[in-house]
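Researcher: Good morning. I'm working through a list of sequences from a screen, and I'd like to move beyond sequence-only analysis. For each chain I'm collecting a predicted structure so we can compare shapes side by side. This is the next one on the list. No need for commentary yet; just the structure.
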Amino acid sequence: MVIIIITFSFVEFEYGYVPDDNQVINKHVANFNEQVEYDVIGQFISPEDVERLKVEKRHDEILSADNGAVRIDDELINLGKELFYTETFGNEVFLTDILGFIDGPLGIPNIMKAILSLKGEPTTNLRVELSEDVTIGKKSWKKGEKIDTGLDVAKGAITPLGIPISYSKGRVRAGLSCAACHASVDLETGKVLQGVPNVDFDSGMLVALSTNSAAFFPTAEIEGIQDYIRDTNRTITNSKGEKAVLPDPVAIEEVVDKTFSKWPKGNFDTSADLTPNPTQTPDVFTLGDHPYSWNGFSIIGPFKGLSTFNNKVHSFNSDTLSLSEHSEVLLDIDKEIFIGTILQNAANKKYRYNTESGMKPSEFLKTVDTTPNVPGINEGVKPATFPKLSMVAPNGSIVTSIGSEVGKENNALSAFQNSLVPPVYKPKVNSETKAQGREVFSRAGCISCHSGRSYTNNKIIPVEEIKTEPTRAKSMKGIDKAFGDPLMYAPNTPTPLPPNPKVLRVPIEQVEEEQRNLAFAIDSNGGYKVKGLIGLAFTAPYLHDGGVAVGKNGELGIPGTVMKGILPDPYNSLKALIDKDLRQDVIDANKSVSELTDVHVEGIGHEFWVDRSTGFTEEEQAALLDYLLSSTSPEE
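Model: Good morning. Structure tokens for this chain:
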């Protein structure tokens, strides 16, 4: 390890593992770009439609980038694959210099030592030695003890999936790309399963072990930030020119660490609502599965909202500063207090705000920010609606690599994700069982929601109807107060932005107003989208909170599986989703652990039973399970 550091101390470098095709199990992709040739702000245009437009002499007009058209071809999809593994949009600065992701007891030397000890063999759970004693909440570890991270390392790789490493200006940094959460490794072959969620990635604990986890305080359990004031002399000037006091960095760090340590493995909280409601990491077999995100907020925009979702993942989810312009309206926290709270204990002294400086936190941030014209510090541009948010940019910024075209990377990621198909479900299910299961699927009414190629009707169901845990559904409540018109830049807009960039209005009329209101909890308590079922065999546990989990030997709930390092079994977990008695056992197991109820992980709701209580036999139930697991995966 020492040799590596010395070798790279004189040069800048970036490295992220990208598997070759022969290192990927589900390398066969859907013929997305053969079925769809263009996306025009969320409307797919087929090759047949392109020919028709040529005949009608409307081709140049409709399929122009000035009209919002994006050409979907192999070049765009291949770019998306590379970005899926390596693109961070500069989030290594936030994660390393502000959050302190690798400055705590999980340093780069320890991570590299753990990888080298694998001797080229793969793992789905990189166990890393701690460099110091640690206590978080009720959990304690000693220096030298190894902890589970859930990070996946492919056979022969020298970095974990989705953790690009870079070195510049005297500092090693670690970033986060899509693959850290949305890809995993097959232990039998050491190859990569693209689009399969990393169900044991312990992101909550890794954030809690960071030196400044308070940088993610908007997702923690905090009733009022003023409750953490300990020293009234730590004053700043707020955005109204008034004197204000920052919360104590130790006190707020404690409560944030305590919250994050309760997240189940495989879950992450992306909602800035000061309420802990982590959700299960979704798969990215995305074609036809719109709207996106568990509550369906990515409901408009390019690729039927998928590019809106990708943008959110790489903005607020990895750079909370991107919402600083809107913290007042969304969280009732003054912008200066918001920024000061995030920066006051930054890992790198360069980014650490000191109340004695006499500067406002926003003024200090400008002195260290390499992207001063963008909300937050990730690489990107201001949204077309700035300073307002919008349904197509509800996160404060548009991440994009400067020198590229606006949003090109998000669109490329969308094209790649839409081309992915899950791995093959290996258990053989005969045609008679499939036919019986398909008949039960229809007779039980499952098909009324889970219909079509992707097994979804693409609707958001009100939380009162679906009855799943409600807090996440309303996590965006009030955001409409910050909304402007749904505008976006034309996809051929260069960066840095020219003086008068082409701005387009994103059509929202094609989505029912009720659905838009549910997505953003406008005049409602929100809802949850009807999840597509493609890749069902590779996405256990189930429901948005991941609470429906049963192990291969009948281990119940999150306490019996994920919390013990046991992977949920897809067959048994899916049975718990439709079997009333088994589900109650799972719910009881989840509720027996206060840490899970504290973060609203229960596995309740979606009470659509296919069991004896609704007149179905055990044989019919088993046939339905076999049908669902096999029909939602490709055949060999």
